[in-house]
Design goal:
Papain-like_cys_pep_sf; globular; alpha+beta; about 300 residues; cysteine-type peptidase activity; NLP_P60_dom; C40 family peptidase
């Protein structure tokens, strides 16, 4: 999980997405989608603003609302939370029980910091969760294929890097379908989700309400093409799809902003569908060359 993205000062919409969005904000790159719990909270007795005491066993790891998040030193982040109300959604809401929620939030909020430890606390200073993270990662060679390949109109392998096929699911477009049919399937599945709320770490494939940006694209490609891929923002940035030039952007491509801060799917006609991005839900935004999103697009990934 690394955070190596810059906070972009742009319009309110994009700033909300890239600077404030947990899951579509700054970027980190982790090779592990799980957040192992470290049971040595006593070692945090000296952490500023904490009691160094673990939460009672009755305090569940569930959906919380972030009150504030701060870098304590160059490698430790402190996140102060309160229990969220039932059914709460929005870009300050994290599901701590999710394998991706806290990690995607930290990736989005602290792009320039190499975060190795995250401590989540209640407002009274009681430690709820103490987890070790890794922020070292880089885009794999299989992702950064030669752009010249695509200028010749060649197709990528199926499935693309970072993806496996779910043979238990019948997708809208089969693995041997024409590229045009796959593109239509991706757009249809994504568009049907417009209005679905944002929650860090959620993916409706797990029976949860809503999505964050990376889990949204994972769900769309799963149901459209049968692809199984990580909902971890860093893993998607480092391992998923094949990079193509921006000028060759096509309907159904995976779009990456700020080196993993935020992701979305190209709809064609200079539009992108994504979850969050200041909207607090799945929605469509402009991706024209003069738009704020267009200016901060960092990578286009071909998925079929």
């Amino acid at each position: 999980m690394h955070s190596h993205v810059r906070t972009l000062s742009i319009s309110a919409l994009v700033a909300g997405a890239i600077a404030l969005l947990p899951g579509c904000g700054q970027t980190g790159h982790t090779t592990n989608s799980a957040l192992p719990i470290v049971n040595d909270t006593a070692s945090f007795a000296g952490l500023p603003g904490t009691t160094g005491q673990p939460a009672p066993a009755s305090y569940p790891l569930g959906i919380v609302q972030v009150r504030r998040a701060d870098v304590i030193d160059k490698q430790t982040v402190k996140v102060v939370v309160q229990p969220a109300q039932a059914g709460a959604t929005g870009e300050s809401v994290i599901d701590l029980a999710s394998p991706d929620g806290l990690l995607n939030y930290i990736t989005a909020q602290f792009p320039e910091d190499v975060v190795r430890r995250v401590v989540v606390l209640r407002q009274d200073g009681t430690v709820v969760l103490d987890t070790s993270v890794s922020t070292k990662g880089e885009v794999s060679e299989s992702v950064n294929a030669s752009a010249a390949t695509f200028s010749l109109g060649q197709r990528i392998q199926a499935p693309p890097p970072g993806v496996t096929i779910d043979h238990k699911l019948t997708p809208k477009a089969a693995i041997n379908a024409a590229p045009e049919d796959k593109a239509d399937a991706v757009v249809t599945v994504a568009s049907d989700l417009e209005g679905t709320p944002f929650v860090w770490g959620h993916n409706e494939d797990r029976g949860e309400l809503g999505f964050d940006s990376s889990n949204f694209v994972a769900y769309v490609y799963h149901h459209a093409l049968g692809y199984q891929m990580s909902g971890n923002a860093n893993v998607q940035q480092d391992t998923v799809g094949v990079t193509v030039p921006k000028w060759d952007m096509r309907k159904g491509d995976l779009l990456i902003f700020g080196n993993g801060q935020h992701v979305g799917i190209y709809l064609g006609n200079d539009e992108m569908i994504q979850c969050g991005g200041g909207l607090g839900k799945v929605g469509v935004v402009s991706l024209g060359p003069d738009s704020e999103w267009g200016k901060h697009l960092t990578a286009v990934r071909r998925m079929y």
